[in-house]
C-alpha cells in the first residue's frame, strides 16, 4: 500500500522529529514549537484543516490514513499525538468561530503559528468544576484551574471550559500571553513525556466577549469534540503497532536458538498470531469508524461505535506491548528497540478522551438501552 | 410512571435510581416534577433555553426520544430513562 506520507515528510520525520526522541523522553522536554511550523509547510500539520482557511481539507478517512502512517514512521509518539490534537482543536473552534477568531487564530494555525489545545479536565466531574467565569460589565473574569492539558507547554491558545453563575458551562478562548494565565509544566508522567503536559491556573483573567466560543451548553460542545477526538487520537496507534510488529519480526527472524530462527518455534508463532489479530481487528474497527465519520453517519455527542473503537484499540495496544516483551526477551528489556518507551506512551491513552473503565460502563448502559429499543421495535404494531 | 436515572445524574437525586411520578401527562411534566423535587437537577438537565441538554438521551419504554417528543402523552405504566454518557478529557 502506498504511503500517505511523501518523501519530504518522511525525511522531515527522520531529521527533525525522530533524531532527538530519546533525549526528549529522558528529560521530559516538550517537542519544540518550530517543528509544527515546518510540519505545516510540508502540508502535514494542516492536512485536516478546512480549505476555506488555507488548509488541506482532507476528508476524515484520508486524514486518518495519514495519521496511521505518521504513527508508523514517527518514533516520537508524542509528536503523533500533538499532530492530531492541535488541528482537532482548530477544527472545533472553526465550527463556531467569528470572522475575528478566524483571522486571529485559525489562519495562523494553518501555518503552525497558532497551536490550540483544550483545557477541560480538573479532577472532578463536569458538574463540579470550580473554574468559573463572572460577568462584570462587558468583561468576563476567569478564575480556576485545569489539570493535564496536553500540549499545554507549546500551545498559543486554549479552548477552556468554565462555569457561569447559572451553573452552565461556557467555552472561552484564552491566549498564552493573557494576564493572569499561569502555565505549570508537568514532568512526572509515565509516558508521552515530550507531549508538553501542563496544568493551567487562571488568576483573574479579564476577557472581552469576543473570546467566547460558545455562550451556553459547553458540556455538549466538549462532548462533541471528544467524540471525534476519540478517533483521531488512535489512528497513529494502529500505525505504531504495525511498525513495532515489523521491527520485532525482523529481530525474531534474525535471532537463532537451537540452530533455528525463533520464528519457527510454535510458542513464538502463537504470540505473533495473537498480535496480528490485535493489529488487524484494530485496523478494521478504525477504518469503519473513519468511514462513518466521512459519511457523517455518527451520533454527534457520544457515538457508541467510535467509543468502542477507542476502547478496543487502546486495550489491544497495551496488551500487544506485553506480548512484545514476552517475545523480545532481554533485548526488549534493555531498551535497544525502545519498546519500553512505546509501552509507557501507550498507557497514556488509557485515561485520555474518556477513560477505559468509564467507557466500559457507558457502553454497557448504552447496550442495554439499545437492546430494549430493539425489543420495543419488535413489539410495535 | 417511573423515571430511571443512572451514572453521573444520580448525585443530583440523592443516588436514588428510580422515581415514581404520580401525576404527569407528558414527558415535560414528568421531568418538571422531578426537578421540582430535586432543584439542583434542573440546570444539569436543561440548558438556559429550557431544552434538555444534548448530553442526555431520553428513552421511553426503550424507545429513544427526540426533542419534539417532549409533549408526548404518558400512561401510568410508562418508564422514562435518562442516559448520560459524559467523557473526561
Kindly describe this structure.
The complex is a heterodimer of chains A (381) and B (89). In chain A, the strands form three sheets. A four-stranded mixed beta sheet of chain A has the order 1-4-5-8, covered by helices on one side. In chain A, strands 2-3-7-6 form a four-stranded antiparallel beta sheet, with no helix packed on it. Chain A has a two-stranded antiparallel ribbon with strand order 9-10. Chain A is α+β, with helices and mostly antiparallel strands. The mean pLDDT of chain A is 95. Chain A has eleven helices and ten strands. Helices cover 52% and strands 15% of the residues of chain A. Chain A has helices at residues 7-17, 21-27, 34-41, 60-73, 77-96, 99-110, 218-253, 266-294, 304-333, 339-347, 356-379, and strands at residues 116-119, 132-136, 139-149, 157-163, 169-175, 181-185, 198-208, 212-214, 256-257, 260-261. Chain B has 89 residues and is of the alpha+beta class. Chain B is built from two helices and five strands. Chain B has helices at residues 27-37, 40-45; strands at 2-5, 18-20, 56-60, 63-64, 79-84. Chain B has a five-stranded mixed beta sheet, covered by helices on one side. In chain B, a hairpin with a 2-residue loop joins strand 3 and strand 4. The longest helix of chain B is centred in the middle third of the chain and has 11 residues, at 27-37. Chain B is globular and about 40 Å long. In chain B, 28% of the residues are buried. Chain A binds chain B through residues 118-121, 125-127, 148, 166-168, 216-217, 219-220, 222-224, 226-227, 230, 300-302, 307, 351-355, 358-359, 361-362, 365-366, 369, 372-373, 375-377, and chain B through 6-8, 11-12, 43-44, 47-49, 53-55, 57, 59, 61-64, 81, 83, 85-89.
Q: What is the number of beta strands of chain B? A: 5
State the secondary-structure class of chain A: alpha+beta
Unreliable segments of 5+ consecutive residues of chain A: none
- Strand/helix succession of chain B: EEHHEEE
Number of helices of chain A: 11
Q: Give the helix level of chain A as a range of percent.
A: 40-55%
Q: Enumerate the strands of the largest sheet of chain A in spatial order, edge to edge or round the barrel.
A: 1-4-5-8
Order of strands, widest sheet of chain B: 2-1-5-3-4
Q: Beta-strand level of the residues of chain A, as a percent range?
A: 5-15%
Stretches of chain B where pLDDT is under 50 for at least 5 consecutive residues are none
Overall spatial form of chain B: globular
Determine the structural class of chain B based on helices, strands and strand pairing.
Answer: alpha+beta
Q: Percentage of helical residues of chain B?
A: 10-25%
Q: How would you characterize the largest beta sheet of chain B?
A: 5 strands, mixed
Q: N- to C-terminal separation of chain B?
A: 36 Å
Please outline the major beta sheet of chain A. Answer: 4 strands, mixed
Number of strands of chain A: 10
SSE series of chain A: HHHHHHEEEEEEEEHEEHHHH
Largest interface: A-B, 42 and 26 residues
Amino acid at each position: 500500500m502506498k504511503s500517505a506520507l511523501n518523501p519530504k515528510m518522511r525525511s522531515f520525520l527522520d531529521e527533525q522529529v525522530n533524531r532527538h526522541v530519546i533525549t526528549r523522553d529522558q528529560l521530559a522536554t516538550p517537542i519544540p514549537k518550530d517543528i509544527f511550523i515546518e510540519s505545516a509547510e510540508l502540508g502535514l500539520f494542516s492536512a485536516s484543516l478546512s480549505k476555506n482557511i488555507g488548509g488541506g481539507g482532507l476528508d476524515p478517512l484520508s486524514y486518518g490514513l495519514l495519521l496511521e502512517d505518521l504513527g508508523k514512521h514517527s518514533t516520537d509518539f508524542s509528536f503523533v499525538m500533538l499532530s492530531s490534537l492541535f488541528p482537532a482543536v482548530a477544527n472545533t473552534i472553526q465550527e463556531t468561530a467569528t470572522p475575528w477568531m478566524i483571522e486571529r487564530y485559525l489562519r495562523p494555525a494553518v501555518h503552525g503559528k497558532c497551536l490550540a489545545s483544550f483545557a477541560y479536565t480538573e479532577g472532578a466531574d463536569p458538574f463540579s468544576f470550580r473554574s468559573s467565569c463572572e460577568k462584570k460589565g462587558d468583561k468576563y473574569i476567569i478564575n480556576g484551574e485545569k489539570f493535564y492539558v496536553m500540549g499545554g507547554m507549546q500551545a498559543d491558545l486554549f479552548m477552556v471550559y468554565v462555569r457561569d453563575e447559572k451553573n452552565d458551562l461556557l467555552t472561552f478562548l484564552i491566549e498564552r500571553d493573557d494576564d493572569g494565565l499561569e502555565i505549570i509544566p508537568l514532568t512526572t508522567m509515565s509516558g508521552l513525556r515530550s507531549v508538553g503536559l501542563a496544568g493551567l491556573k487562571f488568576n483573574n483573567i479579564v476577557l472581552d466577549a469576543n473570546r467566547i466560543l460558545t455562550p451556553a451548553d459547553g458540556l455538549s460542545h466538549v462532548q462533541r469534540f471528544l467524540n471525534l477526538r476519540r478517533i483521531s487520537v488512535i489512528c497513529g496507534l494502529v500505525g505504531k503497532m504495525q511498525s513495532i510488529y515489523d521491527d520485532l519480526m525482523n529481530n525474531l527472524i534474525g535471532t537463532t536458538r537451537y540452530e533455528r530462527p525463533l520464528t519457527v518455534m510454535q510458542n513464538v508463532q502463537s504470540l505473533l498470531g495473537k498480535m496480528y489479530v490485535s493489529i488487524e481487528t484494530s485496523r478494521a474497527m478504525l477504518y469503519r469508524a473513519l468511514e462513518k465519520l466521512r459519511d457523517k453517519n455518527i451520533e454527534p455527542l457520544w457515538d457508541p461505535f467510535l467509543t468502542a473503537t477507542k476502547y478496543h484499540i487502546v486495550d489491544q495496544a497495551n496488551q500487544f506491548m506485553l506480548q512484545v516483551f514476552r517475545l523480545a526477551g532481554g533485548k526488549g528489556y534493555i531498551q535497544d528497540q525502545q519498546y519500553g518507551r512505546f509501552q509507557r506512551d501507550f498507557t497514556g491513552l488509557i485515561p485520555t478522551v474518556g477513560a477505559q473503565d468509564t467507557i466500559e460502563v457507558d457502553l454497557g448502559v448504552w447496550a442495554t438501552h439499545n437492546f430494549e429499543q430493539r425489543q420495543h421495535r419488535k413489539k410495535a404494531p | 410512571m417511573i423515571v430511571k436515572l443512572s451514572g453521573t445524574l444520580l448525585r443530583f437525586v440523592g443516588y436514588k435510581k428510580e422515581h415514581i411520578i404520580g401525576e404527569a401527562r407528558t414527558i415535560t411534566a414528568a421531568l418538571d416534577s422531578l426537578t421540582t423535587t430535586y432543584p439542583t437537577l434542573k440546570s444539569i438537565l436543561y440548558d438556559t433555553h429550557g431544552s434538555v441538554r444534548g448530553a442526555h438521551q431520553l428513552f421511553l419504554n426503550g424507545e429513544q426520544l427526540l426533542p419534539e417528543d417532549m409533549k408526548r402523552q404518558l400512561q401510568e405504566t410508562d418508564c422514562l430513562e435518562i442516559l448520560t454518557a459524559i467523557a473526561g478529557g
